[in-house]
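Question: Now follow the chain.
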Amino acid sequence: MEHLLQPNEVRTLGRPIGKVADEKLIAFITEAEQLHIKPTLGDELFLRLLEETETNEEIKVLLYGGTYKDKNEKIHSFMGLRVALSYFVYAQNLMSGDIESTRFGSVIKNGDYSTHISSKERSDAYNNSVEVAKTYLKECVDYCKSVGLIKSAGRPQFSMGGITIRKIGK
């Protein structure tokens, strides 16, 4: 497999995207895989995901979601890595074009009485989508740790906006 997700799957797994060219979606998929998924899961597991999708049951559950029991026999349910990735792609789509997020998905505003989406609205919609994607990704990392696919998660290397406050000194 070249990518964890195909453009037609992006349209159905996360929030509806509408009429966006496949080439654009593939670019967004590549960016999201390289900026969010690979740094979080690590290169080794990321490459295994591309190669062992159909042959390894743990990887299949990671990609498609499901339920599992942790070490304390507590049952957990999660959406899967493909859904998390589709939300990262959706967020990239929000920030890249002249579109608006509605309850019906992303729409291009080009009618006579349409107004362009403001930078603040676009930023708010982007931040909301990234927050959902990060939550789903965290659930995937928890699953990976529970079943032994990774020992500890890495931290994403790239900042996609927002503020980080660190305490310096004592």
In short: The chain is about 50% helix and 10% strand. The mean pLDDT is 82. The beta strands are 66-69, 75-78, 99-102, 105-108.
